[in-house]
Amino acid sequence: MGADNHRDRAFQYGDGLFTTLAVKYGKPQLWHWHKLRLQDDSRRLLLSLDIDTLQEEVFSQAKLLDTGVIKIHVSAGAGGRGYLRPSKPVPQVTLTTHEVPPFYSQWQQTGIDVDFSPVKLGHQPLLAGIKHLNRLEQVLIKQHIVNDDAIVCDMHDNLIEGSASNLFWYADGAWHTPLLTQCGVNGVFRAFLLTVFAQLNLPVCEAVYPRKKLLNADSVFLCNSLMQIVPIKTLFDASGNCTFSLERIKELQQKVATRLLDEHESLL
Q1: Is residue 187 a contact partner of residue 166, using CB atoms and an 8 Å limit?
Q2: Of 266, 265, 264, 268, which is closest to residue 22 (Cα–Cα)?
Q3: Which among 19, 20, 35, 177 is annotated as catalytic?
Q4: Which helix (H) or strand (E) holds 221?
């Protein structure tokens, strides 16, 4: 790493944000939602992002890649005195390409086993929902995973998300997902799903839920823009293991796949 890279604020302080998107048939999947989050996250972090230029680069890279993953990494740039940014920071944007994890397709079909992570998320409303570069909590969460994945709670033992995904479950005639006003990442696929639920007239509730609520669920799944909808089949817990139905989630997967295809085909 060169001297200039050592001055980069992403390297020094985790000052920046990122998003990871799937590419299929030469097009960035859910680009509208990634674009909205990039704009909102950069605004909240007080960064000026040239979204039009970035969009051109993403579409050009997607065409070359055809199928895979593009990670968009946005740094606040270099310089400043300590934590203080320069008066006019110049964000640095980097695009890298990767493969989709091969086990995701199997997870979508068979479901996964999870437990509750011993790592709890702290509260910081100013950063809640943002996919910023400060991800040490998630690094620790990953080190403690003993099953396929883990359900993560906050410092008050309220449900928040998966290790790198958002959480939904079905109970009492409605879908539920945790409110992310204190911590957690407001995932692109989560935002897309909430719109699909509204279009399909499926009731969904966003609220603060204690972890015990999940133990009484009928169906549970995790989601992100790469894995999409992955059912949870078993939750291991000290108070007793829970097995969840996959049938309702299979039906939802089919409905969402149709909406996802419609949105993908609408891209230029």
Answers
A1: yes
A2: 264
A3: 20
A4: strand 219-224
Q: Which of 187, 198, 195 is CA-nearest to residue 221?
A: 187
The C-alpha angle 239, 220, 199, rounded to 5 degrees, equals 150
Instruction: Report which DSSP code applies to 237.
Output: -
Is residue 212 within 8 Å of 235, Cβ to Cβ?
Answer: no
> Is 212 among the residues known to form the active site?
no
Among 19, 35, 161, 233, the one annotated catalytic: 161
Q: Report pLDDT digits (tens) over 41-72.
A: 999 999 999 999 999 999 999 999 999 999 99
Active site annotation includes 161: yes
Indicate the DSSP class of residue 26.
Answer: T
53 as an active site residue: the answer is: no
Just give the CATH number of 3-98: 3.30.470.10
Please give the CATH architecture assigned to the domain spanning 104-265: Alpha-Beta Barrel (3.20)
* Tokens of residue 61, six digits: 């890279």
Q: What's the whole-model pTM score?
A: 0.95
Q: Which helix (H) or strand (E) holds 229?
A: strand 228-236
Instruction: Spot the catalytic one: 19, 27, 35, 131.
Output: 131
- Please give the pLDDT value at position 268: 58
Would you say 175 and 169 are in contact if contact means Cβ atoms under 8 Å apart?
yes
